[in-house]
Structure formats: C-alpha cells, structure tokens
Amino acid sequence: MKMKSLCLAMALIGATCQYVNAADGTLKFKGEVVNSSCTVNGMNNQELDVAMGKIPLSKLTQDFKGPEVGVTITITGCEEGDYYLVLDGTSATEANKVNVLALDDADAPGTAQNVGIILTDRNDNPVTLDQPLNKDNDPVVHVTSANGGGTFYLKASYYAWGQAANIKSGIADATARFTVIQQ
C-alpha cells in the first residue's frame, strides 16, 4: 500500500510541476561576405617593421616618454567602405597607465625594464589594445571608390614607468597584431 501511495504521489507531483524559465532569447548573427581583400603595402612575411631607434636611458628617466615615431599602414585594392584598425598585443600590466604595449620577452635578461610602447592616432588619442572594434575610437580609413585605399597614421613612442632607478636599458622590441575590419 505504501508503494502505491508513493507512486501515486510522485505521479501527481510530476504532473503538476511547471517548467521554470528564467529567460530565453535568440542570437542573430548579421554580416555579409564581400569580395574585398585589401592588401597591406610594405609587409614582409605578414610583418611591418617600425624602427624605434636607440633612445638614451636618461631621456626615459626624465620625461618617461621617448620621441614619437611615425607608423603608417597603407591599404590598397579595397572595396568602397569604412575600414577600421584594431590592435591586439600583450599589455604591460605593471605600467601606471592603460594601453601600454609590453616588450617581447619582458622578463628575459638583456631586455629593458619598466619600459613599453604607447600608440596614438595622429590626433594623439590613445590606440586601445585588446579591445573589440570601437568605431568612436579606432583609427578609420574611408574608401570612396572600388579598388581604392588609404593610410592609417599612428605614432609610437617608448613609455617608462616607476621610479627612475627601476628603469633599465636593454633590448626594447614589442609586437602588436593588427586587423583591418571593413564596416
């Protein structure tokens, strides 16, 4: 009898339970496949070299910033549209400001210490690292005709942080990956 009562109770509970739904929705992926395949001029094995030069340690310990070096990324063979430049790279998390690109092999002997690279657009607005496309902040090239192109103009400079005694000379190479996105 107890078993029949238990089975009956379970059946009633199962029949009266309601599905609880916190929230649901739909993901709609929107985009377009286009023929555009811009070419980046001046690349060697998918790389553009930027010669930062040799900066005296005394310059970095006084001003905490080295001279600006122009960086140009020229795209050609593009379809009409707006093209944005997005940069990714390892951030120097110990720096006292955001968007400082860390040096390659930062902890290796012979690498400069407490030094990174900052990038700005030609209006001195910081270029963000490791962020999704931001049409309000990312550098943009407007291509107005088929098979057109343009140039992204940036500035790079060494940036130092911390106490002057902790800024050390050495190799100061850094790597940033860039993506050109058409919108």
Automatic annotation (TrEMBL):
Location(s), subcellular: Fimbrium
GO process annotations (BP): cell adhesion involved in single-species biofilm formation
Cellular-component GO terms for this entry: pilus
Any Pfam family the entry gives: Fimbrial
Entry-linked SUPFAM superfamilies: Bacterial adhesins
Keyword set, alphabetical order: Fimbrium, Signal
Principal localisation: other
Family: Belongs to the fimbrial protein family.
Protein name as annotated: S-fimbrillin
